[in-house]
Specification:
Number of strands: 12
Number of helices: 13
Distance between the termini: 23 Å
Order of helices and strands: HHEHHHHEEHEEEEHHEHEEHHEEH
Helix content: 25-40%
Radius of gyration: 19 Å
Strand order of the largest sheet: 4-5-6-7-3-2-1-8-9-10-12-11
Strand content: 25-35%
Shape: globular
Largest sheet: 12 strands, antiparallel
Structural class: alpha+beta
Length: about 325
């Protein structure tokens, strides 16, 4: 499961993967609400999480469609990746895809999805577009060695390279939910969070555009032992990123790097757009012992500008 989500090529499954990453990084949306601690994950996806997983990133797209942030910034806009996926598969991700869960063991990653994936509908279209049908342990995979879609049920699919998909399928019999370390971290995440991620340690890369400001977070990850991040977009954009470092000194380094990143961003605000400084006013970094926290509080009216500045405009 390759966690570095830089995809290339023109097969339908690659377009699908680009769209998945686009929605997760542009939209930052939607896990389900729950009264219990931690984000709710659909059982059909949760029970597929391999026991060697060190990173999970979750979102519910059906909840995204109802958020004012989505309605203001994305509803009705043409997104080329979404439109291409629709034309090639006959499915509209904005209607037929409900939830995404990215899992990685630090070396390989798979995007799990819940939606309308009946292979009798999708397989002929994907094959027509150049995808190769591959059968593995009674399941159908469509795509190529570097990128394929596996149909696990009529409403559950997985996207990744073929070896990663084989690993996922091989472990289904012994997969019963997130590993203990990740499950513990997830309990720290509020149930009302609409986007969340948990990281239990080890080498890994987040699927952020390296040319965006968030691409710098990959470099900071090397100093962390564990970490979580969550967002609530119900009233502006509010969230907390927390990381536990290897030492107090390492935590001070991460704190300094984050403050420097925020400071550089503030200096980059165009003189004719002074209102953009409000975005940086809502970013606060604290450090206590081994732990570093980044608090994010962006007003409702500035969320679209925040997404544009930090995610990379038009990506």
């Amino acid at each position: 499961m390759q966690p570095d989500c830089k995809f290339a090529g023109s097969t339908p499954s690659l377009k699908w993967m680009r769209w998945c990453v686009l929605m997760m990084t542009l939209a930052l949306a939607g896990c389900a609400h729950s009264g219990s601690a931690g984000p709710k994950v659909d059982a059909a996806l949760s029970t597929l999480v391999p026991q060697d997983t060190v990173l999970m990133v979750g979102t519910r797209l059906e909840a995204l469609l109802k958020l004012p942030v989505y309605q203001k910034n994305f509803a009705g806009k043409q997104l080329s990746q979404v439109d291409q996926f629709t034309s090639r598969t006959g499915l509209d991700p904005r209607k037929d895809l409900w939830e995404l869960l990215y899992v990685s063991n630090g070396h390989r990653g798979v995007m799990l999805g819940r939606g309308q994936f009946a292979d009798e509908m999708l397989a002929p279209r994907l094959e027509k577009e150049g995808g190769e049908r591959m059968d593995y342990k009674g399941l159908t995979l469509i795509g190529h060695e570097r990128s394929a879609m596996a149909f696990l049920s009529p409403t559950t699919a997985a996207v990744g390279d073929v070896p990663a998909l084989h690993d996922l399928i091989d472990q289904r019999a012994v997969s019963h939910g997130p590993p203990v370390a990740l499950a513990g971290l997830m309990k720290q995440i509020p149930a009302e969070s609409q986007f969340w991620a948990a990281y239990s340690g080890g080498p890994v890369r987040l699927p952020f555009d390296e040319n965006s400001n968030l691409g710098n977070l990959n470099r900071l990850l090397t100093s962390l032992q564990t970490g979580t991040i969550y967002f609530d977009l119900s009233n502006g954009l509010n969230g907390v990123a927390q990381g536990d470092c290897t030492s107090d000194a390492s935590a001070q380094d991460v704190e300094g790097a984050l403050k420097a990143l925020i400071g550089l961003g503030r200096l980059s605000v165009p003189k004719n757009q002074p209102e953009l400084t409000q975005i940086y006013d809502g970013l606060r970094v604290t450090q206590e012992g081994h732990r570093v926290k980044l608090y994010i509080d962006v007003p409702q009216g500035m969320v679209d500008k925040f997404l544009g500045m930090w995610m990379g405009r038009g990506r």
